[in-house]
Amino acid sequence: MVVATSEKVDSLLRNGADWLADLGVVVVDELHLLDDPDRGPTLEMTVAKLRRRQPGLQVVGLSATVGNAGALADWLGAALVTSEWRPVDLRRGVHYDGQIAFRGAPVRAVDARDGESDAVALVRDALADDGQSLVFVHSRRAARDLAQTLADRAVATPAPAVGDEIRQTARTATGRTLADCADAGVAFHHAGLRAAHRRAVEEAYRDRALGALAATPTLAAGVNLPARRVVVRDHRRFTDRGWEPLSVLEVHQMFGRAGRPGLDPHGEGVLVAEDYDEASDLHEAYLAAEPEPVTSKLATQEALRTHVLATVAAGFADTRADLLAVLEETFYAFE
């Protein structure tokens, strides 16, 4: 058994790794990543090349957030297997005006102290019930700032041992700030941290030495850090087209981190609203909605140029007909 990213398998295909011919089963975890503009084309082409190379290959796709699972199953020539089972019950709600209005569950009051933001109050409330929190914000700076606020407010049990571990290898202001936050039992997590610091934060959080993490949305994909309460404070992100709302798929992925098997009676996914109208909108946009259909992101000049050249260079195609035959195996061609 080999566990690898799609990018690594793509590299192995390009370099002609002989042992790939022995593959009998390929499990594609987080199959909805096909929808990602950056990683999706590589995942899609990798699956297409593996299937073309070995027509009898068994492919198993896994996802908790796909709006068009039937179409993906048809593309893969697979049987669609669905299940509503979850090891820990998930309650989803919107926080506004001092309470969480859960969908299909009782309302929960959340008391905020003077000058305390909604996010801080939600973290404090979860910790009072012996539950860890994971708060998603829109940027690295926002994650750091929220963690510092949580530390200043002393919402969690101090964890000086974690802070000392991080401080030993802290060479930047970010590292030193992270250590200071960890001293107070909280931390921030994003792709800009040193690998050793990310590992220290993740291990301390799993060991329950840290009570809360402030994180960017990248943490929702692929990092197993479950919490009692997942708070989506920022449901918009800044792109080259300006501020845009998060997709339903992304929010459901974040909510999927709620609930620790064997530790929590239930998990909570909470969106934060600024006023009554926004609270109503969030209920309809995210809690009452199904994830969007996954679509191929291969049909861009950059993605096609890269993968067409790689397909030719790796010997998968020597003619235009060969190239089209490979591309016909993609989800883009299926669509």
Describe the structure.
- This protein is an alpha/beta fold and 335 residues long.
- It is 39% helix and 15% strand.
- The chain has helices at 6-14, 40-53, 69-76, 118-128, 140-152, 160-167, 173-183, 195-206, 248-255, 276-287, 301-313, 320-327, 331-334; strands spanning 25-28, 58-61, 90-96, 99-102, 108-109, 133-136, 186-189, 212-215, 229-232, 236-239, 242-245, 267-272.
- It has an 8-stranded mixed beta sheet, sandwiched between helices. The protein has a two-stranded parallel ribbon with strand order 1-2. A two-stranded antiparallel ribbon has the order 10-11.
- Helix 1 packs across helix 2 (40-53) and helix 5 packs parallel to helix 7 (173-183).
- The longest helix is centred in the first third of the chain and has 14 residues, at 40-53.
H/E element sequence: HEHEHEEEHEHHHEHEEEEHEHHHH
Q: What's the helical proportion of residues?
A: 25-40%
Largest sheet: 8 strands, mixed
The portion of residues forming beta strands comes to 15-25%
H/I helix tally: 13
The gross shape turns out to be globular
Overall pLDDT: 94
End-to-end span in angstroms?
A: 31 Å
Q: How large, in whole angstroms, is the Cα Rg? A: 22 Å
Protein structure class: alpha/beta
Low-confidence stretches: none
Question: Any chance you could write out the topology, listing elements then pairs?
Answer:
Elements: H1 6-14, E1 25-28, H2 40-53, E2 58-61, H3 69-76, E3 90-96, E4 99-102, E5 108-109, H4 118-128, E6 133-136, H5 140-152, H6 160-167, H7 173-183, E7 186-189, H8 195-206, E8 212-215, E9 229-232, E10 236-239, E11 242-245, H9 248-255, E12 267-272, H10 276-287, H11 301-313, H12 320-327, H13 331-334
Parallel strand pairs: 1-2, 3-12, 6-8, 6-9, 7-8, 9-12
Antiparallel strand pairs: 3-4, 4-5, 10-11
